[in-house]
Specification:
Blueprint (H helix, E strand, L loop, with lengths): L5 E9 L2 E9 L5 H8 L1 H4 L13 E3 L2 E2 L13 E4 L7 H13 L5
Amino acid sequence: MVDDTFAIEVAFGLPHKQRLVALSVPPGTTAREAVVLADLPRLFPELPCETFDDAPLGIFGQALRDPARHEVAPGDRIEVYRPLLVDPKAARRERAKRQASGGTG
């Protein structure tokens, strides 16, 4: 019998904890399916399970437009991105406002 699978990795991290899950998946596996197979809620019980359901995904730092349709390739590292806590534009405006008023930080 021929093993019709290939190796990939799924990565997720918090500031204090990171995990890289090695998987063997069949051809046709999507990035979103790979995240489900990685069982990240078990590895990060401190987060709500739904954290991973619709999280943005990327492969080697390149964001995926449609992770539910993107089929992974041998050697891919699927990255699960955390939601932003602060909108970057709002943070820049706030910093600029503080600097303009003479604030330090």
